[in-house]
């Protein structure tokens, strides 16, 4: 399949930027907000935004069960930032009633980089693109506190004070990054996901 159809969960967050990035990476991108719209997707992106709001809206729209079912069935999903939080089996510093879709055996800490450095940019060595680092835009970003045995770490930060912090992972068809590649003109992270989707369908 040359141009897979990839939905962007459009209940909150930077939907448009992901849709543009996906289209430039060779996919047919489509905003989705209802459970029945998930049926004919090859894959889904959960954008950056605010995971507590996303959780609330997903609950009230009844989206968690259909999303979990698609993840279980093997649909590829890529989550950036708040989307990473949504793919985590466990979260720290979440709201008490906050739910996630889950699927990646990891613990993610919300707003992990703290007040001093809520937003920053850094070059990230992203394993699938070894030719050159990707420019990571981190906005009140989470980090991955720990991963289970089945999770592949795709990127850790290199510079202090965050050296060694995990900021990109993959488990099966699920990919998550702490940073926002949709906000740069570099489409290599989205192209990596589109290739993964082509292999999966
Ligand atoms: N801090 C946000 C959250 O907890 C994530 C920020 C982002 O997606 N840029 O959901």
TrEMBL record:
- State what protein this is by name: Pyridoxal 5'-phosphate synthase subunit PdxT
> What's the catalysed reaction?
aldehydo-D-ribose 5-phosphate + D-glyceraldehyde 3-phosphate + L-glutamine = pyridoxal 5'-phosphate + L-glutamate + phosphate + 3 H2O + H(+); L-glutamine + H2O = L-glutamate + NH4(+)
Record GO terms (molecular function)? glutaminase activity; pyridoxal 5'-phosphate synthase (glutamine hydrolysing) activity
- Taxonomically, the superkingdom here is Bacteria
Claim: Hydrolase is one of the keywords in the record: yes
Family membership noted in the UniProt record: Belongs to the glutaminase PdxT/SNO family.
* Keyword hit for Transit peptide: no
Per UniProt, subunit arrangement is: In the presence of PdxS, forms a dodecamer of heterodimers. Only shows activity in the heterodimer.
Gene symbol of the encoding locus: pdxT
Q: Which GO terms describe its biological process?
A: L-glutamine catabolic process; pyridoxal phosphate biosynthetic process; pyridoxine metabolic process
EC number(s) in its UniProt entry? 4.3.3.6, 3.5.1.2
So where's the catalytic machinery, residue-wise?
A: 81 (nucleophile), 180 (charge relay system), 182 (charge relay system)
Query: So where does L-glutamine get bound?
Result: 49-51, 110, 139-140
What are its GO cellular component terms?
A: cytosol; glutaminase complex
What the protein does comes down to:
Catalyzes the hydrolysis of glutamine to glutamate and ammonia as part of the biosynthesis of pyridoxal 5'-phosphate. The resulting ammonia molecule is channeled to the active site of PdxS.
Keyword annotations: Glutamine amidotransferase, Hydrolase, Lyase, Pyridoxal phosphate
| PROSITE patterns according to UniProt | GATASE_TYPE_1 (PS51273), PDXT_SNO_1 (PS01236), PDXT_SNO_2 (PS51130)
The pathway entry for this protein reads as: Cofactor biosynthesis; pyridoxal 5'-phosphate biosynthesis
